[in-house]
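Suppose a colleague, Dr. K., hands you the sequence of a protein chain of 224 amino acids and asks what its three-dimensional shape might be. Before reaching for any lab equipment, you can write down a predicted structure in token form. Begin with the sequence itself:
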Amino acid sequence: MHGEIVKENGFSMLDSDSEQPSNGPRQEGLDSGPPPEWVGGLPQVEDPASPASPPRKERSGLLEALVLVGVALALALTLKTYVAEAYEIKGRSMEATFYSGQRVVVLKAFYHIQRGDIIVFASTEDPSKDLIKRVVGLPGETLVVSGGSVYVNGRKLNESYVKPDPRDYRDLRREERIPPSHYYVLGDNRTDSHDSRFFESIPEENIRGKVVMRWWPFGEFRTF
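The predicted structure, expressed as tokens, is then:
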């Protein structure tokens, strides 16, 4: 690991060309110095720790990298599960705000739902399916959808985000007193959206999160 100090335990090496003391006259043909395999009175051996040090450091670095990758994956899974998640839009019900193939980020915690927010929720008809719609009615309100307009407690909503369509809405009149902890949701493309007009308001526990960003395509990046 970084910062680890590895101590080498090999023997100190003396210069083999150093002059050695003699206790008597040198004899011809005899070398008064130590055998070539001895230096300083000790056998020359390789330090067994020295060759192993580089692999040990490499293994430490690899272990550190694996730990960092594991931590990063854990954080990513935690963020996806509890904080935010990316979704891809499928279908036409939210045109012209979103088109099929665009991608958004959904905040799954630390949000507050208000009228006009776009949310992702589990369908009350098929919980395995996630839908994306806009909140138009809040808990306790009386909501009427008639003639292509939405009325909340008798007042018409100004909905500039709705996709214009010349078709008549008069046969789609709906009225509901929204229960506590429920929200009334509609698609921006009213003539091509399956929403609360058909399955009524949705319970709060079905909500996956609030759309906070369109990040793809990059050229159409937008926050909500």
